[in-house]
Amino acid sequence: MDDDIVSTDRLTKRYGDRAAADRVSLTVRRGEVYGFLGPNGAGKTTTLRMLLGLVEPSGGSALVHGLPPGSPGALRRTGSLIEGPGFYPYLSGLENLRVVARYRGLGRREAEEALERVDLAERGKDRFRTYSLGMKQRLGVAAALMGRPDLLVLDEPTNGLDPAGMASMRRLIQDLSGDGQTVLLSSHLLAEVQQCCHRVGVIVDGRMSFEGTVADLRGARVLQVGAEPAERAAPIVKGAARAEVEQARDEDGRTVLTTEASGVDVPAMVRELVADGVDVHSVAVRERSLEDVFLTMTEAQR
Ligand code: ATP
User: Fold this and answer.
1) Do 99 and 50 belong together in one domain?
2) Domain co-membership, 93 together with 199
3) Distance CA 140, CA 186 (A)
4) Contact 14, 55 (CB under 8 A)
5) Which of 24, 25, 42, 251 is the most buried (most CB within 10 A)?
6) 44: pLDDT confidence band, cut at 50, 70 and 90?
7) pLDDT tens figures, 150-160
8) Number of structural domains found in the chain
9) CA-nearest residue, atom 10 of ligand 1
10) 255-260 and 246-249 as β-strands: parallel, antiparallel, unpaired?
């Protein structure tokens, strides 16, 4: 499809008899921020390296801008930050970017523009070694942005950053996306992906276990009812939700019933519970936490 900037079909990388990436199929569409999510060692970096032509696949195929990964045409339109930026500590941020620009045959203005785009212009004349980790990462993004690539590939761009640095990197990614930049980023942090990505691919043990929107990943919202006695409350909640009910206890030892929230007439259910002599302590509708979803997915694959 024209709108797919990246598409892979059962892309595989084996090291010995172990598959670091095992038949990975994913698509990144033009203009989106795609979060490639997975725990440490899941195969994210290996996959991204294959997309940049840095690692030779053992099987399957991939297209980047409709071209083979690593081909000059694909590389010209792709900027990347993978496994930390390599900069000269005693040169300023701006000088470092100028070195990169010269190396890539780009004009001098590119370095200044990139610095402005990542909001580092004011510190551009300071030496790289005086930068905070967050600033170093931003400079890495600036280097990736030079030459105005259609696609930005960022491997764990917030790794090692404090909360303020993470928030600032997220804002930068959102700003770039607002300008129409397509971004493929990897992360092991659910909350982060949830906050800045349009679509998500989840990889566990080298295999893709999900691809879709964050809302799809979370699935339906849940209804939680704190009610006693449980044996009277459960059938009523089950009837109202027309779905299975799970029982657990909250920190005060009270029963909490959890079920699907969609289509439940909550006031009618509460009236029924009360009419049946059930004590209702709490009623809440909430989204499933991504943490829960992710853990379920990880366990399902083990
Ligand atoms: P992290 O978040 O920790 O960087 P990741 O999802 O990026 O993890 P990869 O770096 O792609 O994971 O690694 C996936 C698996 O492949 C790991 O088990 C790793 O040890 C293995 N692996 C990666 N590169 C090599 C290599 N050059 N030789 C042998 N095994 C490798």
Assistant:
1) yes
2) yes
3) 15
4) no
5) 24
6) very high
7) 999 999 998 88
8) 2
9) 45
10) antiparallel
